[in-house]
Amino acid sequence: MSSPFPDPDWLEEAIKKYKRKLSHVRLTKLIRRIEATTQLNASVAQGRLCFFDEKMSTLLNEQGVYSDFHPSYMAYARELDRTQKELTWMVDLIREHQILRDRWERRGLNPTILDLIDNMVIIHKSP
User: Fold this and answer.
1) What is the rounded CA–CA span in Å between residue 11 and residue 55?
2) Going by C-beta distance under 8 Å and a sequence separation of 6 or more, which residues neighbour residue 52?
3) pLDDT by residue (tens digit) across 2-53?
């Protein structure tokens, strides 16, 4: 079934260009070129995350936090860590920290434990 409107002049060339971009031969070369770097970056990120989790787990165990609550505290710590790496301005860091603290305290987490996590995770301190 044809369209009631004529195809634009550029459509046929655009389709050819699109198919060339998605050619498996071309994509295979691109993927192989970035594969080693991507795997290296992924392994470094995984190592950092594992080290971070071990530090948090050790802190929680030292404080006698039941293992049932570990995922909640870990989620808070990871989210706080993510914001510390992504946000630039101190006002944004402070506001985001307040939002996270409020959210996780309302879920019943111990503010004292959250303070210990803050001391370990927060790298940008206000003067």
Assistant:
1) 56
2) 77, 78, 81
3) 678 888 889 999 998 888 888 777 788 888 989 989 999 999 999 999 999 9
Tell me how far apart the terminal alpha carbons of the chain are, to the nearest angstrom: 69
Q: Is the distance from CB of 70 to CB of 60 less than 8 angstroms?
A: yes
pTM for the full model? 0.70
- Using alpha carbons, list the distances in angstroms from residue 30 to 22, 23, 38, 71: 11, 11, 12, 38
Q: According to the CATH classification, is domain 11-121 in 1.20.58?
A: yes
Q: Tell me the CA distances in angstroms from 107 to 21, 50, 76, 111, one per residue in order.
A: 48, 25, 11, 11
Q: Output the CA angle 66-76-96, nearest 5 degrees.
A: 155
Q: For the segment 46-83, what is each residue's pLDDT rounded down to a tens digit?
A: 999 999 999 999 999 999 999 999 999 999 999 999 99
Residue 109 · residue 72 · CB < 8 Å: yes
User: How many CB atoms within 10 Å of residue 69?
Assistant: 14
